[in-house]
Design brief:
By secondary structure, the chain is an alpha/beta fold. Helices cover 24% and strands 33% of the residues. A hairpin with a 2-residue loop joins strand 13 (243-244) and strand 14.
């Protein structure tokens, strides 16, 4: 676990530089930035200023705001912003519920709220607890608000797990989330080792608790740019993301497939699941020697490609 930062300035996420100016000494606290600091571990009253580009999920957003306020010194400044349609319209009410006086303004389809941290806050402990890691009985897994499909098992992942080809040797799960696919992968005795990679540090924390097997490890890495990825892999499985901040972004999936091609050995296997409308076949064809559609059901398709 990372040590609390000694900087007095923090930032959460990637706020639009045309909306706010981030202090160059600010430390990154977003769990979507591998190597960033843990806001939940930051000491109380340790920061002078915090800027937070708020996540869209209500529970996740309220927890991040509450942890930011807890980390601020009395009299410290919190600048919180979010797109109006992705939580921004609720931002002022949420901050006022914590006992803050809020100066709000609207710019470029965002709500921007400035707060001077009061001496007494209300309800932050409950908000932080609501956003913490939890064992959900309905899925029998450790999970956390904000991670992909946090309150149910994603149907695409279930379909991929049920339609995996024969896997052998050493492989990886790109975008492993909380470790949903690993039991199906490790059920094949021919698998020697698998590494689960995910950009979300919270998901990795959950996966480590969910999957206990000497043949698996999990790493907090952005596979699109990660330099520590294992090379010459025998196989890669993935349920690649195609949404970012609430909007479809097919470039994410394309980047995952390109990364998989780089890390596989010649003859290695890629197996992925995707929504049927996504044009991944056109991306796979020039990169891989051959591919086939293993399954199509419920609006999903499972593709297998060989390098």
């Amino acid at each position: 676990m990372s040590e609390p930062t000694t900087s007095e300035y923090g930032v959460y996420g990637e706020p639009d530089p045309e909306l706010v100016t981030v202090n160059p000494l600010a430390v990154q606290f977003s769990p979507l930035h591998p190597g960033g600091q843990r806001l939940e571990g930051q000491g109380e009253a340790s920061l002078r200023e915090m800027i937070i580009h708020c996540p869209p999920g209500t529970i996740e957003r309220r927890a991040a705001l509450a942890m930011s306020l807890r980390a601020l010194q009395a009299g410290g400044e919190l600048l919180a912003l979010a797109p109006k349609l992705l939580g921004g319209n609720r931002l002022q009410d949420e901050l006022e519920a914590f006992g803050c006086a809020v100066e709000g303004q609207s710019r470029r389809h965002h709500k921007i709220c400035r707060v001077i941290r009061p001496g007494v806050l209300s309800g932050i402990d409950a908000a932080i607890q609501a956003g913490a890691m939890v064992f959900r009985e309905n899925v029998q897994l450790w999970t956390q608000p904000g991670v992909f499909s946090w309150d149910k098992v994603d149907r695409g992942s279930q379909i991929l797990a049920a339609n995996l080809p024969r896997l052998a040797g050493t492989g990886a799960d790109f975008g492993c989330g909380i470790g949903v696919l690993e039991p199906a992968i490790l059920a094949q005795d021919s698998v020697r080792h698998v590494t689960g990679y995910d950009i979300d540090r919270r998901a990795i924390d959950c996966a480590i608790r969910n999957v206990v097997d000497p043949r698996v490890r999990f790493e907090n890495v952005d596979v699109r740019v990660g330099k520590s990825l294992q090379a010459n892999l025998d196989f890669i499985v993935t349920n690649p993301p195609f949404h970012e901040t609430g909007f479809e972004k097919q470039g994410l999936g394309k980047a995952f497939l390109a990364a998989a091609h780089r890390q596989l050995r010649k003859g290695g296997t890629l197996c992925l699941v995707a929504n049927r409308h996504l044009p991944y076949e056109a991306i796979i064809k020039p990169l891989f020697r051959e591919f086939e559609i293993r399954a199509q059901l419920e609006g999903f398709k499972v593709l297998e490609a060989r390098k």
